[in-house]
């Protein structure tokens, strides 16, 4: 049972069987050989650095240790990034991903939210004052929006900032228990400043939500300042490394200059100056939502790597009596659960890539004063954020369950990925709310369609003839698949609009009609997102330049994504007889064929994501497939095994055994 | 912000508007007023017990503390149980749940599995020797079946027990890395014995899997015996109190009398005597499976209590501009997520009752060697276990997400319920494997049908005419719902059988054909379980012992369960045009009508589960609805807040801050 260093033979065989060159696919995923090289270089910098290896595994740490170790790691990462001159966000990301995988930084929001917000929302003067302090970490900040009683609905926040013209200060308060800030990352113990979102009152009037720079802890002693009650909110499902915090403000005064005043202003006398456009403030939120799409895709990709490699190594149940036990990846049911998720991880990855490009393009336009694409950017980012986080987090759990009992151990690495990805469903805009925002956009577009107005390109499918039937034939053409999704979305949009219309006609107000139709509206929004992702996947596969073998393999995966989505949501596609029963049979049969077609490439597909073992941190997903040795080693190093006999044995069990029976040490 | 002992006014109003008397439903669920009084009496004893108030909140404990706390708490409950003379299984459960809900008991398998196994599988003589020791806890044992490389497929186990007639001993070995026992609960640090499942070899021949009583630790020093390497397997997603263990055995000798010999025997000279039937060994496994349905149903019920009460308290987003923010329970989308789950929790509860009774009724015959009902018992217990575990654990996660961000905190209690519930999908038979066992049963019944033989009682409906259309009309009769589900099963069973026949027709073997149709077989099995649960729910609400108002409410819930299941699996119901488009309209309209109908009773329905706050351990699900005060208290008591400034601040943050020219403590 000595440690073996060779690659597990099943896994080696899998790698020989693939029909394409893995490296070519990696090049396509990460946009070129140069970028793949760069990514590996950055991963290596972290994985080869002895600093990161000195800590015990995450699963063996108490929560207090998780926080402390993660803090050390991220401070070191900051230092290293400066030393190595890593300035590009993507470079920092790859380096960090390998140095502290799924270990959420206790100073992360300082870099990704606090500093950018000062840059975007602060005046020149404010930037000059705060940025150097923030960059030197003298000032460590976070973003305090969510309150105990208020989340997604920002206008409902209760924290107040009341301007006092006599002292030229704002007086900040959390007037009720529900107004207490609750959840902001890093707020509890780490930061000494935060950007507080509060209702501005000046000259006796409420001027809506604005941002205020508030110092909460002393810069030397780190003790909370007067009027500030601040602390950690306690243990959570995951994010143990992060001190999500609470904050109660009572009559805290800050100078007028601490309101972020690039757009709206309060003058010395208390006059309120409105921002030129209210939508400008939402830019960084859109960026965060865009990032969630890719984060979700990565989480699912990693879960697929682990569960598919393990499924190639794991053998269970002889296929014919007395024969060898089969690799579980050979079971159709296992393929049916895993391969569509593999396809989903690619689909979502491409969607995330698109989202980021679209964000850059649109924000450049916005900065240039052109706000035309703003509603689209908002709808697409909200929809893809919700759709991808739902699909990917449920997918990660399915991957975990596909690893049987071992998936439940932290040795698999899968629970850690799950608890890191699943909050994406509720933070930065709760998913159901996001979907209804998409629906609102869709209803507007539907109104335009009815009025014969022009639609944005990605909404033009709404004008298709809903009486037309599917063009699906035996070959299952990609364009027929895309049309099917677009047909379903268009029909559901129409149905939701009709439902509202009907309620209005029955005498309900528009608000009541909306509220009485939100389930149908949500279905329409999900169908729209599904169509969008499918079309994007198809276009990526068809239109991009890539090696022909890779293209052919990726086409199968794309087809699987689309066919599986239809078979699993069949009702929505056939309730208006869009498909006839023969076409349904073709699709179901195609699903099984695609599973068989993808089977020889499954391991190559996950290898192409090119995640080093140090990122996966999984006994089951190791590149060399030596899963049992790794599980055995994991068990042996369990902290519970440090003592051969636990104290609880002497304290509780011994006394509970009654002494009726003769003493014997061996039966 | 003082703690208030009053009930939140929204919740109080909810309770006053229920249309039925919840006490009646409580009595129905728990078996009458006397049983309910007893339940509450026992829960109160726990609530008032000073010893059980000791120790920190579960979420604040490290894994080691949880393991330690788990042992003393459960032993204390054992003692309390004995002192109070509580012998009834359900009453014991009330006591234990109130004291340590979802906290694993390291001796649970000893009492729940080992003592019954000794009674069922050991000879009279062995029982006389072991039972008194086991009952006095001198002997503490667990059940060691699962190996690193082998789970559900028991025949594949690699551990060997080779009989040596010279010394009249068995020699036990884990001959490979993958043979190491891995996962058995309590094995790591707690037990001194285990019932080992191993391949028996005698007279040079393999005799299949048998059970052996093996001492693993010294009875006094508790140190591992020679040849035994044993320990905890390390941290997991949940089950942290449990020392799931590993065991490596190297030439350990045990006397011949330690093989459990009620049915099969090895004589002194090594002669092997077969058991009268190999079916007899599975009794305790079936029993365990039968109990899983009720226990996952309870998890979902608890999650529904928490999320529905919280949804009544939580307000978010003004419905009309400037108005009051709405209770989130009033949003149709929230109802659409939660109410079907509430219905599911009742459906699964009743299914659990059914399978429990079915086992009790049929098992005595089986134990006597009359196997007529064994295939049905096996199929029903496997199917309901898998179906309920999947549905309920996914449902718990949905409930958690419906609580928004707060659901992610351990303060909600929901993550703990989830991690306790979800392993039921993989333990005691991996769900997909069990579903395929159900499918095998269905295929056998189908061929009986084809051959004109009589069918088992639970599948009589397979005889129905597939060309018949649905009787569904505006009133959505329960009978038509049941028929729809049964029609779906019948069609899917025929589809799967045809799939197999077609492939055999292409010249493939029976085995290959089976393997190529497992996805369809899974669909058929899942539909079968679903149909059974619907029918059983319908039968339950039609019972005589309900007052009219309660029956009315339960009937709405039952109808919702039926209708929602059709809408979300619509494709399988309509691909043969069983419903026409008008009927589909009726069903989707009825879905929203039912959500509205259940709305006023939602809180009363969850109240009827009558779980005390001590069981729920949730800031969000408190009976009094004072969720925000509770969240605040939870945060304040977080262990990270014990020190105002953490050591890590001095150790890591201060040194990382770049020296700044001017020192200032307040900006």
Write structural notes for this entry.
The complex is a heterodimer of chains A (667) and B (667). Chain A has 667 residues and is α+β, with helices and mostly antiparallel strands. Chain A has 23 helices and 13 strands. In chain A, strands 1, 2, 3, 5, 6 and 9 form a 6-stranded mixed sheet that branches. A 3-stranded antiparallel sheet of chain A has the order 4-8-7, with no helix packed on it. In chain A, strands 10-11 form a two-stranded antiparallel sheet. Chain A is globular and about 90 Å long. In chain B, strands 1, 2, 3, 5, 6 and 9 form a 6-stranded mixed sheet that branches. In chain B, a hairpin with a 5-residue loop joins β10 and β11. The chains are: A alpha+beta (667), B alpha+beta (667). Chains A and B meet through α5, β12, α10, α11 and α13 of A and α4, β12, α9, α10 and α12 of B.
Give a quick summary of the entry:
By secondary structure, chain A is of the alpha+beta class. Chain A is 53% helix and 9% strand. Among the domains of chain A are: 28-103, Orthogonal Bundle (Butyryl-Coa Dehydrogenase, subunit A, domain 1); 110-276, Butyryl-CoA Dehydrogenase, subunit A, domain 2 (Beta Barrel); 474-607, Butyryl-CoA Dehydrogenase, subunit A, domain 3 (Up-down Bundle).
The CATH architecture designation of the domain at 110-276 in chain A is: Beta Barrel
Largest sheet of chain B: 6 strands, mixed
**Silhouette of chain B:** globular
- Strand % of chain B is 5-15%
Q: What layout of secondary structure does this protein have?
A:
The complex is a heterodimer of chains A (667) and B (667).
Chain A: H1 9-17, H2 22-29, H3 33-47, H4 50-53, H5 63-83, H6 89-99, H7 108-121, H8 124-135, E1 141-144, E2 160-164, E3 169-173, E4 181-182, E5 193-202, E6 205-215, E7 228-232, E8 245-249, E9 252-255, E10 265-266, E11 272-273, H9 283-313, E12 315-318, E13 325-327, H10 332-367, H11 374-402, H12 414-421, H13 431-450, H14 478-505, H15 510-515, H16 518-543, H17 548-568, H18 570-574, H19 581-598, H20 602-607, H21 613-616, H22 627-636, H23 647-656
Parallel strand pairs in A: 1-5, 2-5
Antiparallel strand pairs in A: 2-3, 3-9, 4-8, 5-6, 7-8, 10-11, 12-13
Helix pairs in contact in A: 2-3, 3-6, 5-6, 7-8, 9-10, 9-11, 9-12, 10-11, 10-16, 10-17, 10-19, 11-12, 11-13, 11-16, 13-14, 13-16, 14-16, 14-17, 16-17, 17-19
Chain B: H1 9-16, H2 22-30, H3 33-48, H4 63-84, H5 89-100, H6 108-121, H7 124-135, E1 141-144, E2 160-164, E3 169-173, E4 181-182, E5 193-202, E6 205-215, E7 228-232, E8 245-249, E9 252-255, E10 265-266, E11 272-273, H8 283-313, E12 315-318, E13 325-327, H9 332-367, H10 374-402, H11 414-421, H12 431-450, H13 478-505, H14 510-516, H15 518-541, H16 548-568, H17 570-574, H18 581-598, H19 602-607, H20 613-616, H21 627-636, H22 647-656
Parallel strand pairs in B: 1-5, 2-5
Antiparallel strand pairs in B: 2-3, 3-9, 4-8, 5-6, 7-8, 10-11, 12-13
